[in-house]
Amino acid sequence: MAESKKQNEWLEWGKAIIIAVLLAFILKTFVFATSIVEGESMYPALEDGERIIFNKLVYIISQPERGDIIIIQHPEKNYVKRIIGLPNETIEMKDHVLFIDGEKQETSFVDEYHAKLTGNFGPIQIPDDSYFVMGDNRAISKDSRNGLGFISRADIIGRSEFIIYPFTEWEITR
């Protein structure tokens, strides 16, 4: 009788472990994943070497929004950038001020120093189903202004949610 009880206990533990592994696999594959920030283009919001968790499911049920920090899938590597312009908008930077569809925009995610490093551009019409992205550290960022171009909706694979490493930097990134 004791051996039967021990065997049932092992079976229950085995089931629990298998369920936990399957659940972790499903979450990592379809809901959350991690990425490492490479470079200083998103400073000060994100720093080189930080590990972030990004949400893969969010854009299946909603649309990307201005200000979202997103993960962009490109053939050579993934990029972490911030959405600045949405589909069919006209974007322009004039005298360190961002204008969208002719209206001045207040941006809380870029300080005055980094805003001054952006430089003038535009007006630029963003195509349907595309986004205009920039890094927060505008002087050194490869983004929609200088190499990445417009970002197709299909290339956005998730939204940054949390900084998980280094442990002293834990915070929500949205």
From TrEMBL:
Which SUPFAM superfamilies is this protein grouped with?
LexA/Signal peptidase
Name its cellular compartments.
Cell membrane; Membrane
Keyword annotations of the record: Hydrolase, Protease
Keyword Glycosyltransferase found: no
Catalysis performed (reactions): Cleavage of hydrophobic, N-terminal signal or leader sequences from secreted and periplasmic proteins
PROSITE patterns referenced in this protein's UniProt entry, alphabetically:
SPASE_I_1, SPASE_I_3
List cellular component terms (GO).
plasma membrane
Membrane topology is: Single-pass type II membrane protein
GO MF entries: serine-type endopeptidase activity; signal peptidase activity
> GO BP, one example?
signal peptide processing
User: One Pfam family of this protein, by short name?
Assistant: Peptidase_S26
The record's section on InterPro entries has: LexA/Signal_pep-like_sf, Pept_S26A_signal_pept_1, Pept_S26A_signal_pept_1_CS, Pept_S26A_signal_pept_1_Ser-AS, Peptidase_S26
Keyword Hydrolase assigned to the entry: answer is yes
Instruction: Quote the catalytic residue positions.
Output: S41, K81
The record's listing under Gene3D superfamilies reads:
Umud Fragment, subunit A
Q: Which family is it part of? A: Belongs to the peptidase S26 family.
Q: What is this protein called?
A: Signal peptidase I
Q: Source species, please?
A: Pseudogracilibacillus auburnensis
The organism that produces this protein has a lineage beginning with:
Bacteria, Bacillati, Bacillota, Bacilli, Bacillales
